[in-house]
């Protein structure tokens, strides 16, 4: 799977979230408030960063792995779209 859209990114993020017992995995949208809803913790964020790098060839600069870029899938997608041309392997 390539990450070609914010919808693809939502699918990737959803696969890295540890849903609570008895909690139904939700369909994420571009505007889902990931941090506000407590859906992401530091481990999930690092798994997303790792998956983007290893599976999709998108290396996020360390300085960009900050809470503001993980507030919503759309925020992370904006970062990905604005990566310098050399960031994609």
- Elements, N to C (H/E): HHH
In terms of structural class, how would the helical and strand content be classed? Answer: mainly alpha
**Superfamily (CATH H level) name:** ACP-like
| Strand composition percent | under 5%
The total count of strands amounts to 0
Form type: globular
Q: What's the mean pLDDT score?
A: 88
Helix proportion range: 25-40%
Total domain modules: 1
Number of helices: 3
Q: Name the poorly predicted regions.
A: none
Instruction: Give the termini distance in whole angstroms.
Output: 16 Å
**What is the CATH third-level topology name?**
Non-ribosomal Peptide Synthetase Peptidyl Carrier Protein, Chain A
* Rg over C-alpha atoms, rounded to the nearest angstrom: 12 Å
Q: Any idea of the CATH class? A: Mainly Alpha
What's the story with the biggest beta sheet?
none
- Could you say what the CATH architecture is? Orthogonal Bundle
Q: What does this protein look like?
A:
This protein is mainly alpha-helical. It has a single domain, classed as Non-ribosomal Peptide Synthetase Peptidyl Carrier Protein, Chain A. Helix content is 39%, strand content 0%. The chain has 3 helices and no strands. The longest helix is centred in the middle third of the chain and has 15 residues. It is globular, with a radius of gyration of 12 Å. The protein starts with 5 loop residues before the first helix and ends in an 8-residue tail after the last helix. This is Carrier domain-containing protein.
Can you tag this structure with a few keywords?
globular; Non-ribosomal Peptide Synthetase Peptidyl Carrier Protein, Chain A; PP-bd_ACP; single chain; 89 residues; Carrier domain-containing protein; mainly alpha; 3 helices; ACP-like_sf
